[in-house]
Amino acid sequence: MTKKKRGSSSVYRTGTDSVKIRLIVLTVLAALLLLTALCAKYICPYDPYEQNLLLAKQPPGPEHLLGTDRYGRDMFSRILIAGTTSIFSTLILVSITTVTGTFVGIICGWRGGFVDAFLMRISDLFLAFPSLVFALAVAGVLGGGVQNAVLALAVVSWPKFARLARGLTLTQKEAPYIMAARLSGSSTPALLLRHILPNIAGPVLVTAVLDIGTMMMELAGLSFLGLGVQPPAAEWGSMINEGRSLLQIAPWMSLAPGAAIFVTVLIFNLLGDTLRDYLDPEHKKKRGK
Amino acid sequence: MKKKFIAAVLAGAVMISGLSVSVMADKEKTFVYGTTGYSEEMGDAGLNPHDNYSGWSALRYGVGETLFKYNDNMEVEPWLATDYEFVDDTTVKITLRDGVKFSSGRTMDAQAVKECLENLVKVHDRAPSDMKIDYIDADGLTLTIYTTEPCPAIINYLGDPYGAIIDMEYGVQGEGGNANVAGTGPYIAEKVTPTQIDLVKNENYWGGDVKVDKVTVKSFSDGSALTAALQTGDIQGTYGLQYDNYALFDGNPEYTINSCATSRCFFGQFNFESEIMQDQNIRKAIEMGIDKEGFCSVIMEGRGLPAKAAFPDSFSYGNEAVETVSYDPEGAKKLLEESGWKDTDGDGYADKDGQKLTIDWLTYPTRLEQPKLAEYAQATLKEIGIDVVVNNTSDHMTYAADGNFDVYVSSTTTAPTGDPEYFFTSTVVGPKNYGKYENKEVTALTEKLHQAFEPEERAKLATELQQKILDDDGFFFVSHLNMGIVTKSNVKGMAAHPCDYYEITADLDVE
Amino acid sequence: MLKYIGKRLLQLIPVLIGITFLSFAMMRLAGGDAVTYMYENAGSVVSQEVIDQTKKEYGLDQPFLVQYGRWFAGMVTGDMGTSYVSGQKVYDTFMEKLPATILLTVSSMIVTMLTAIPLGIFSAIRHNRWSDYLIRFLSFIGNSAPNFFAALILMYVFSVKLGWLPVITSENIAASLVLPTLTLAIAMAAKYIRQIRAAVLEELNKDYVTGARARGVRGSVIIWKNVLRASMLTIVTLMALSVGSLLGGTTIVESIFMWDGVGKMAVDAITMRDYPVVQVYVAWMAVIYVAVNLITDIVYHYLDPRVRLGGEQG
Description:
- The structure holds 3 protein chains of 3 kinds.
- Chain A is built from 10 helices and no strands.
- By secondary structure, chain A is mainly α.
- The N terminus and C terminus of chain A are likely disordered.
- Chain B has 14 helices and 21 strands.
- In chain B, strands 1, 8, 9, 10, 11, 12, 13, 16, 17, 18 and 19 form an 11-stranded mixed sheet that branches. Chain B has a 4-stranded antiparallel sheet with strand order 4-5-7-6, with helices on one face.
- Chain C folds into 2 domains: 75 residues, no CATH class; 173 residues, MetI-like (MetI-like fold, Orthogonal Bundle), CATH 1.10.3720.10.
- Chain C has 13 helices and no strands.
- By secondary structure, chain C is mainly alpha-helical.
- Chain B: It is found in: Cell membrane.
- Chain B: Its main location: membrane.
- Chain B: InterPro entries: Peptide/Ni-bd, SBP_5, SBP_5_CS, SBP_5_dom.
- Chain B: Keywords: Signal.
- Chain B: It is a lipid-anchor.
């Protein structure tokens, strides 16, 4: 839909030093997030599932850094545990959509003709399909749960990557080096894997990283509407929803998980943006020296 | 210049509107009422009692009245009727109140009531199978109803909101959520929409002077919106406030909370076709492992009352009349050990023959409290070594019908008409007995209840039945919902009622 | 041109059929049905016969394909069915909700444009100075808060703490409009600022701008007359996409603020298993999707004749 022509001459050049530093800092931050999410189980101060009604709805304090929820569970521990769910399900979701979308896109761009037209109509269908309806139907058929919310979003999100990869493949297809490779007798799969894929990987990767934030919010949105994780499992979106009706009585119950999503999305968005600057100096130039 | 002019006009307009409001306030009393209980989704939009659940609205907002009503103990009392008498098993003679007029001007007599009830059984979905009316005779103020088979509960059913008496000559104006009717109540609807009802006082009300001139009933689909509207003063009274928001009004002198236990009961059924559930010790341990007090006071924020059995205290055959186990995790553990379930591998859950003690807990999310109960029970049952797997799904009916659960927690209004029979015929021995609980004595007693006419006899049977199913650990009852009406403290005469039918009455006043 | 539009409208048909069929199938597969739901919500339970009877009335006892066929035939003849929940004509319900969504769309677009265009241009002109960094950082912040979280914070600050604005839609439409509009505008403006900034920067670096500068044309004139005009393409594309998604109803924001629009209708219908209403929503989304694509293409053609009509749509 948006006509973005991305630099096709993607011979990777290093960006300026400042971009490099930003990239390193943000990568470290993102890695820290992942590490925290990975080790959440071992570093949370309390059992995130242990209830103690005597401690219900305690405000943040030295005992419980972010307070407790209505069951007296420690919010800080729950946010850590929820991070594991939120971050990893988002990463899985983005991986699925990127791989599937790119695969379909390359096929369409390369083959053209009927296959292209057919797959693109299908992608139209899913692009126009409201993810909410899908999520609910999936939840109905397969039961609730974060894996099903991921599935629902994957189904409506892959076309974005298919279109991107298709466009990029089309620009590469006629490039002289492809001709040369063809003439030298490379098989089609080898061509696609060895030549096309590496040359379109940059923009796809950037889009994927930028998509992490969006997808995390979408996933949290579904959980917020009650279509994601099931209790007692914790997920940031469902925690916000859980605390919503107590906004006036126990604001920390919704504000703390909200802040967690916010910081995570911010880091991934900045990372994606910086990665683009780094991989695509053309773009960087456009944005101003 | 222009700006000044506009400013002057605006200022004038504000003053005039302000003035008119204060003048109006002197002579007119108004009341704006917010509720989550009125909507098309609930099936009660509009005021036509013969359509789905709209009778609830006719009754709740003071437009319609029934022949009999329920008192605070859910016993039947005369209302538009003054007396009744069973002539034989299939004939009941009802005497109507004299001097009652419909808002259309017509006098309410036996003929008018006959027309109304005949239309009811002709068009309504539930009424015909409840009341089993064969035909009706009208003579002055005496109404005689003949039923096709003995129907001792007919008096109770006449108190169901669908039994609100309306003038059929006036008929039903408008359709569905816009339907307006001429009833006998303290208020007359001026305008009815699926989201709002505008009421004015009935100057000729038979029950005396009506104190408030205008009442507006507004529908809210979201509990937090209702809370906010009450806080900002957009509305002066609410029904259906989200249970965790009462804390905002509790103890605040500006508001009055009026609440009362209803017969809506959160309860669980055990699946007798599941192998581990056949062990009575496990069933008992589950009930003993759930802290009902804690759930009601903390999770439900006091909006629930711990239940022993199906009916709340206000009923003569309610909680007080029966006995069941209480919260006792140690005792529960012992029971499990007796049956050979013990934690031998140190994972915190009991096991037997290498199998972990895991139960499937089926419930559904429409009632907010149910998933909360599941989550809570999951934690407390873990204490005694039971691993609870929660299946919280909107599609619970399919799972329940397939017997795909160990424990199925749902909620229902156990005595919608103030009579105990419904719960037993539907849930204990009827189609909603998803757990396939079976006890010949219970079946026999239920049949006896079905045929008993005397209220005392029925109450006694209901008590006996409940005790039997508790002794068998066939069901467990967790909580009765405490329904509350919160108003500004200057609003008087609004009381929560155990059957949820009566909200705006002639007693309503704004000081 | 007309022929082209006609061709594109024809493309609507397969998308429309595909998408409605898909949603029809999904809702059926999802299980749980409207009739049982209806009774359940009303509080008490009725006999199986009554449920079966009601299902029959709605045609829910028919095989799936028959149900879909009936629905589609109805839609073609202008009858989109009746809501299981309210008993109202679905089309009427939809038309009733649409104005609220349009109002919210217009107001949030206006606020977005009024913030994003000046800030985007300003940021481009001052690029790599502290004001540019500040604006860009703020736009990242705006872009990283999920809208339901932004909504909660706005509600907490302006309604609960300050008491300036109603939490939900009330009689006072203007006051009720503020918070949902802000919620939507924050996220959109954040995205726009970055795109507009990029587009303007691209133009600023072009030769004609340098030329004009050399000729002594004033900076502001260049910006308004040339640069902005050239950047219109980006802005218009963005707008078309946003208007499209806003008209689809912003499900979460509408639900949080009880804004009685199409999005809230969809969420309610989905939770109530009110298939006919869900269907009309899905069909509407398909229409918007095709319309937005069409409009973007036409605008491209108009603003930038180099783009060949019917060309790539990537």
